[in-house]
Specification:
Number of helices: 1
Number of strands: 9
Largest sheet: 7 strands, antiparallel
CATH architecture: Sandwich
Strand order of the largest sheet: 5-8-9-1-2-3-7
Number of domains: 1
Distance between the termini: 47 Å
Structural class: mainly beta
CATH superfamily: Superoxide dismutase, copper/zinc binding domain
Radius of gyration: 18 Å
Helix content: 10-25%
Length: 179
């Protein structure tokens, strides 16, 4: 009887640990922050990354973007150099999936829903992704050795087409850093 109770307690404890926001051992909850800039280097706003039971919650307000729908993705390298932000690499995709939230062979871990910028050039970003974690642990930790960037594209993501959903040029970028 004691072994059945002990096993039940162990299972319940494991479930409780799995439900908690992801943390680093011996440290407070890890959060992230990305200052998003355009190709001219102007700051467009800050995005915050926080762990939740549903995944990583990304919030913030961005300004001075072209009105309309835009693809937004997490990219596999934490660099936003050059006017085209090519140093951010390709989408964060540790599972080697196909691109797109609507692709049966996808999505990439870094695929996110489109954002819609209002006619004043502003957007309130409020997205959650269950495919990454705020830590350095492979394969889904975004604070790995080469880091992660958040990139905004010129057009909307069609959520199906490799490699980036036909979302066009990279128009803004921010390195996701621990905060």
């Amino acid at each position: 009887m004691k072994s059945r109770i002990g096993a039940s307690v162990a299972v319940l404890l494991a479930l409780c640990v799995a439900c908690r926001p992801q943390t680093q051992v011996g440290s407070p909850i890890t959060t992230g922050r990305a200052t998003v800039r355009n190709a001219a280097g102007a700051t467009l706003g800050v995005l915050l990354f926080e762990p939740t039971s549903a995944g990583v919650h990304i919030t913030g307000t961005l300004t001075s973007l072209p009105a309309g729908e835009h693809g937004i993705h997490l990219h596999g390298v934490g660099k936003c150099d050059a006017s085209d932000f090519s140093t951010a690499g390709s989408h964060f995709n540790p599972g080697a999936a196909h691109h797109g939230l609507e692709n049966p062979a996808g999505p990439h871990a870094g695929d996110l829903p489109n954002i819609t910028v209002n006619p004043n050039g502003e957007v309130a970003v409020d997205l959650t992704t269950p495919r990454v974690m705020l830590g350095a642990t492979p394969p889904t930790g975004i604070f790995d050795a080469d880091g992660t960037a958040v990139v905004i594209h010129a057009g909307p993501d069609d959520q199906r087409t490799d490699p980036a959903g036909n979302s066009g040029a990279r128009i803004a970028c921010g390195v996701v850093a621990r905060s």
